[in-house]
Design a protein that fits this description.
2 helices, 91% helix, 0% strand
Length: 98
């Protein structure tokens, strides 16, 4: 009877061990996925920063100046395009009246 019990316990421990290994593999894969996401996110941040001319040492004021310059440039382009559209509308109205 004792031998039978030891055999049963020995068989069951293999199943528990396999289940634990499966859990460990799953958890390890989650850790690997999160590390890869972090690498991609960090690389993307570095890439965007380098394109914008910003780095880790950039001050908030430098970032603010950069985006104010961008906003000014975009506003200038918008104003220029609105002027062109306005002139085109005026020409069209004149052409329709003639």
């Amino acid at each position: 009877m004792m031998v039978m019990m030891m055999v049963m316990m020995g068989c069951n421990s293999g199943g528990v061990l396999e289940a634990e290994q499966g859990k460990n593999k799953f958890l390890q894969s989650l850790v690997n996925v999160s590390n890869e996401f972090l690498n991609v996110f960090t690389s993307f941040g570095d890439m965007v920063g380098s394109v914008l001319g910003l780095n880790v040492d950039s001050k908030k004021s430098d970032v603010g100046k950069y985006f104010k310059t961008v906003a000014g440039t975009v506003q200038g382009i918008k104003d220029g395009l609105n002027k062109i559209v306005s002139e085109m509308k005026k020409k069209r109205i004149r052409m329709l009246r003639e």
